[in-house]
Amino acid sequence: MPRQSIVGERLPGFGVVVERGPLRFFARTIGDLRPVCHDVAAARGAGYPDLLVPPTYLFSLEMGRPDPYHALGLLGAGLPAALHAGETFTYHRPCFAGNRLDFELRITGYTEKREGRLGLLERTASVTRDGEPVAELVNVLAIRWEAVA
To answer: Which residues 6+ apart lie within 8 Å of 46 measured at CB?
Structure first.
């Protein structure tokens, strides 16, 4: 079966409630010191219902899903053969601590370079809150096929 046949494959979806503690830790770690990401009173004073989720935090939530490397397994590759090659975010609305977010995941692309020795796997996560779109996350992994035993 050609590796490109994986395109369109749906991956197991999941839901998560955004928790304040991990959100604060993430914001501090990336250097986002805006009070709306750390202080509930400041967030509410700015008109938000709770702490504001920093832009790339959704990727951290997505990596917490059950079996985060399922797509690699479908290709017959493991984590040691994979490298992070990029990601993009498209936001439709902000999200906040206390929100329940649902992630639907699918494989949206696969190409090969270097005479098949390098694969580029693209995964897209559609994130919703109460059925309304929040964001799309696109993640690209480079797979070094010579590293697959």
So the answer is: 36, 52
Question: Collapsing DSSP states into helix, strand and coil, what is residue 107?
Answer: strand
Cα–Cα distance measured from residue 80 to residue 34, given in angstroms and rounded to the nearest whole number: 36
User: Quick check: 1 pLDDT over 60?
Assistant: no
Q: Please report the pLDDT score of residue 21 as a whole number.
A: 96
Mean pLDDT of all residues in 40-60: 95
Contacts of 119 (CB under 8 A, 6+ apart): 3, 75, 77, 110, 111, 112, 113, 142, 143, 145
* pTM assigned to the model: 0.86
Amino acid (1-letter code) at residue 135: A
**Quick one: pLDDT at residue 96?**
98
The encoded tokens of residue 138 equal 């696109």
Q: Token match 């604060």: residue?
A: 24
Between CA 118 and CA 111 the distance in angstroms is 8
